[in-house]
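Q: Please design a sequence for this.
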């Protein structure tokens, strides 16, 4: 503002920075920021959470794409893969990585059905495998299935 005032003095403009007779606001009144755009298909490549904020859409708890509502995947059965269904599948973002009903063990994230007793691929029948080793845990008995337990 001081630079603008100095320029006005140097140029000899008497009304510089004041109100003009055009009826508009004063030049130095400061314009308010425009309201943020609503989260949706034109403003968000991921998904829109309950508060209306755009999320990346790749988390199990906030999964989605194309500016749609975020969905929570059940980590026991699904993984977040909002683009995994191909062009013929719409509005499905949570996927079982392998045919769970046909898997006696657990499904790895890359779609392989394994026994489910390894520390890096632990889980019960018809479930997504857990990587216990990455959490400094081991695969063990949890109720009537296998899961991550303290060593």
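A: Design:
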């Amino acid at each position: 503002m001081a630079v603008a005032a100095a320029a006005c003095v140097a140029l000899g403009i008497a009304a510089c920075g004041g109100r003009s007779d055009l009826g508009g606001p004063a030049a130095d009144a400061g314009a308010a920021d425009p309201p943020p755009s609503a989260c949706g298909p034109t403003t968000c490549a991921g998904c829109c959470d309950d508060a209306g904020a755009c999320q990346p859409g790749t988390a199990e708890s906030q999964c989605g794409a194309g500016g749609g509502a975020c969905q929570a995947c059940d980590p026991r059965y699904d993984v977040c893969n909002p683009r995994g269904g191909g062009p013929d599948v719409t509005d499905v973002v949570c996927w079982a990585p392998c045919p769970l009903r046909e898997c006696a063990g657990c499904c790895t994230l890359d779609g392989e059905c394994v026994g489910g007793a390894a520390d890096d691929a632990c889980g019960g029948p018809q479930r997504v495998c857990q990587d216990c080793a990455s959490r400094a845990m081991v695969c063990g008995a949890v109720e009537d299935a296998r899961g991550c337990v303290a060593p």
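Q: Thanks. Anything notable?
A: The first strand starts at residue 47 and ends at 48. Residues 4 and 10 are 10 Å apart (CA to CA).
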